[in-house]
Amino acid sequence: MILDSLISIVLYSIFGLIGIYAVGKNKYLKKNLTKQNLIFISIVFIILNAVLMKNLDGNTGLSDGLIYSFGNFIATFMGAILAIGIKTKFKKFFVKEFYFALFGSIILGSTLLILAFG
What we know:
0% strand, mainly alpha, 5 helices, 118 residues
């Protein structure tokens, strides 16, 4: 279980680094990716994960899916922090690029989950 968590955090940090690179090249996302927009995207990510995971083996319904979804979001968040740490050499964590890393982690992570469980 711990190994699975570490693998997912590393995977989400790779997604975060891809997000930093991709959003840095896109003027529209660079301008409009704000804290408020990321909160909305995060809520949608949590709900999407809950709906996808409600029928997973061992889950009894939507409540178990929500628990899994919150755990997955924590891994996404920690992956984005690790990506920013790598980018800034662990000097600053919550800079503008953090939003880019979290966005990349959420979008690429959602894509991977939909392909795997959808």
